[in-house]
Each structure stands twice: as structure tokens, then as C-alpha cells.
Amino acid sequence: MMKIAVVGSINVDMTVTAERIPKKGETLRGDSLHYIPGGKGANQAVAMAKLGAEVEMFGLVGDDAMGVKMIDNLKAQGVKCDHIGTVKGESTGTAVITVGESDNTIIVVAGANGKVDKNYIDGVKDALLAQDMVVLQHEIPLETVAYIVNLMSEHGVPVVLNPAPAANVPAEIVEKVTYLTPNEHEAVLIFGEGASTEELLRKYPEKLIITQGSRGVSTCLADGTILTVPARKVEVVDTTGAGDTLNGAFAVRRAAGDDMEKALIYANAAASLSIGKFGAQGGMPTAEEVEEVLNK
After folding, report:
1. CATH code of domain 3-21+31-294
2. Is 183 annotated as a binding residue?
3. pLDDT by residue (tens digit) across 199-240?
4. Fewer Cβ close by (within 10 Å): the C or N end of the chain?
5. Is 64 considered catalytic here?
6. Which is higher by pLDDT, 102 or 254?
């Protein structure tokens, strides 16, 4: 079995549901409040574990009750947590999410995630280099992401970088990652307004994968064909974590040896299943559920 590492954020999502998202200065009555395990890193690790992969999470939590709960949750989902550290006097990362009208707004407080630095990476370096693939996002410091990309590149370990939340990615990092998976907004921030989606994809065949929400996901195959896998039509319950599910599922299938097309069809199906249920991790499908959809 392939070993996949995720280095990234471990958050608690404080999710409030309401009939709609409030306007500036407005007070609304909420319907419900949930404390849900989250963080892009942890979400992607759970997505992969649910799909049957051997996954280890690397990152930091605060020395609070939520930190303990988040690690317990990861373990319960089948994610290895031997190298997750605790930062004294720091809170566990928190995302405050408002869900209404099939959409959401999110404010993230980094907490311990902001302390995932080069020193931490140096301490877990051997464990990371023993992996078959490393998955990264932008909810830990960007200089740490660059440090890991350089380290993995030197040692020939494939890297998936999901550049979210949106931030600039230096050209050198774009060259060194194996796969880059921005959405359209993130792609514009990285590459500028000038080029069309198709031009960008052609420039980075089988590396750049652009997710386009309800229009599906696109990449350029090695032979120059632009592949777009359309989104499956599903009833939207909660879109939180759909991108994390897609990234996790894609990493699992590529690590297992699937070609790009097969891996993206699988990832797309997994993401579509995730938006049919509430909560980022709660909605993530098992391998059996994805296979069932693909066999229809």
C-alpha cells in the first residue's frame, strides 16, 4: 500500500447555519451551531483514509481541549498521528463558518497552524522522506510550504500542492511540485489575468489541474488534449470540503498508479458525493461509495 503524508492545518470548524449569510452590520437568527473537525490538511487526510489509503498527518495543535479532540478524531478516521505536535500557550486552529443558501463564508484563525515552521519540518524530515507522496495546502506558513517542496523535490518524492486559501506561488515552486490544483480564482492569482485556462493547462501538461466548481475539473494530458471532467449533478447540502475531497481522492488514485483521466474521474465522483452531506469530513465518501457511483 502506498504511504501518503499530509502536512497542513488541523482546525476545529465552528459552523453556524442560517437561512442566508448576513450582510455587513446585520444580525440574523441562526438555526444551529456545530463544532466540526476541519482544516484543509486534516480534511484531505481524512478523505484519503476513508478511501482506504495509508495516510499520516503532520502538523501542530494548541494545548487546549480542542487539540486533543482533533487528534482523537483523526485517529478514529484511520489517520496516523505519531508526528503531530502540541504548541504550549497556543490555541488550536479555528475556522468560523457561516452556511446559508447553499453557500458559505469562512474566517480562519491560524493558531498552532501558524507555528508549523522549518524547525518542525526538520524534526519530522525522515518520516516525510519515507512517504510515497506528500500533499500540501496554504493553511500553514507559505515559507514552510516552499521549504517542504524543495526538500521533497531534492529527494524525488512527488508533491500535490493545493494552493488554497489563494496566495501567490513562486514560479520555482510551480516548477518543482508534481501537481498543482488551484481553482479558477487561485489560478489567476498565481499566473495572472493574461492567459486563458486552456493556455495555462497546455503550458503545464499533467501538472496543472484547475477545479471549476459546477463546471468540473480540467487538465491537459501529455498528448496535448484538454481533458474536462464535468461535475456530476447532485443536490447540494454543504460545499465545505468538496475541494479537499477532490484533492485527497486524486492523490490516492495517482499514488495507486491510475492515469490522469481515471484519477480525475474518480476524484470528481468523490467530490460530488461529499457535497450531498453536511460537514467537510462527515460528507466524505468511502471507496465503496465512489465505486458504486462510477459503476452506474
Report:
1. 3.40.1190.20
2. yes
3. 999 999 999 999 988 889 999 999 999 999 988 888 777 777
4. C
5. no
6. 254
**At a CB cut-off of 8 Å and minimum separation 6, what does 269 contact?**
232, 249, 290, 293, 294
Distance between CA atoms of 74 and 89, rounded to whole angstroms?
Answer: 22
What are the tens digits of pLDDT across the range 81-119? 999 999 999 999 998 989 999 888 989 899 999 999 999
Residue 257 assigned as binding residue:
no
172/176 Cα distance (integer angstroms): 6
Is 277 annotated in a binding site? The answer is: yes
Helix (H) or strand (E) holding 186: helix 184-191
Confidence band for 189, pLDDT divided at 50, 70 and 90: very high
Establish whether 214 is an annotated binding residue.
yes
Secondary structure string (H, E, C) spanning 32-51: EEEEEEECHHHHHHHHHHHC
